[in-house]
Write a structure and sequence with these properties.
Two copies of one chain form a homodimer. Chain A contains two helices and 14 strands. With about 190 residues, chain A is mainly beta. The termini of chain A are far apart.
Chain lengths: ~190, ~190
């Protein structure tokens, strides 16, 4: 579904939940995280009980023009698989040299970042905090709180998504609960080990 | 003031007010609107009493790279000059073929749009509503409410600002109060008349 970006338009999001009545969101369930979590057995146990919604986001279908902007909200729900917090798959941009902006509007979360050369970092977000994702960095949103982690995002409309690199190799870091708070630790399976 | 967009970073904004403690905002007062309002005499009368703050916004100094994004908040305060609501100067982008995204996070306002060919439109924003400003359109924010009108904006970092065209010609439309609500009317002085 796309729309005419050559006319002005308005989209509505509920600031508390990130949900928009104007579009149908894309939804990712526990089963979509197969191969992406540290504890695959814990994931399968959870799926047997209920294939829960982990996150959803809006793809507005903005045409891939370098002068346009893709935008929407992303909502990552609270939860854990084993000790690992619920998270988005994460992606590089297909055009690597394009940045992204995330404004947190509800909840408490973290953006995990890494580039192809192995530089890794993260930023903690609460409402009103905005993360700048630099060009060339893969990024993943992680809910480290108890409420939905809601962000408004914008990136250049032609940036594209490369999910494959992360699906194959994973992120170098995991975000897990330790002693009641989050900890960012090395991913022992990074690189497909 | 600029910063390193090649590292991740976080900026904080108060969602209720749009104010950031991380940067000093750019401020525009009544005296900065000379030549831009319909009722110049009313403006001078107001300035004599107090050169009030009309709006402020953040310029983060993101380097002008086509892969980067400029972002910040803009806060237009409530008020009127004659019957005309407080508003920003408005601008085209220097690179005309670049869009902009505005997410309203507080207040009630309007984005006034027009292109060089004379097509004109507007969008009313309340919290959670996001306006897509198409490529090639000048845009101005107008506060039609009683509280500060706060928006989070993003555009391509190399887009640039052309304020001169609007400073010289004005917008084709004015936003004024009529019978207790806003009305968008023709600007009799448009084009420097």
């Amino acid at each position: 579904m796309s729309y005419n970006v050559d006319r002005s338009s308005v989209f509505s999001f509920a600031l508390e939940t990130g949900i928009s009545g104007d579009r149908v969101s894309s939804k990712r369930y526990l089963s979509n995280l197969r191969g992406m979590v540290a504890d695959g057995a814990a994931l399968e146990e959870m799926i047997k009980k209920e294939d829960m919604l982990v996150y959803e986001f809006y793809e507005m279908g903005v045409p891939e023009h370098p002068g346009d902007l893709a935008f929407g909200t992303s909502i990552c729900y609270p939860g854990k698989v084993g000790g690992e917090y619920f998270m988005t798959k994460g992606h590089f941009h297909s055009i690597l040299d394009t940045a992204e902006v995330y404004l947190c509007i509800a909840g408490r979360g973290l953006i995990l970042l890494e580039n192809l050369e192995g530089d890794s970092s993260y930023e903690v977000l609460t409402p009103g905090k905005m993360a700048y994702v630099p060009k060339r960095y893969a990024h993943r949103s992680v809910n480290i709180g108890k409420e939905p982690f809601v962000q408004f995002f914008t990136f250049r409309a032609d940036a594209g998504h490369d999910y494959g690199t992360i699906e194959t190799k994973g992120f170098r870091k995991l975000v897990v609960e330790q002693d009641g708070d989050f900890a960012v630790i090395d991913n022992p399976k990074w690189g497909g080990k």
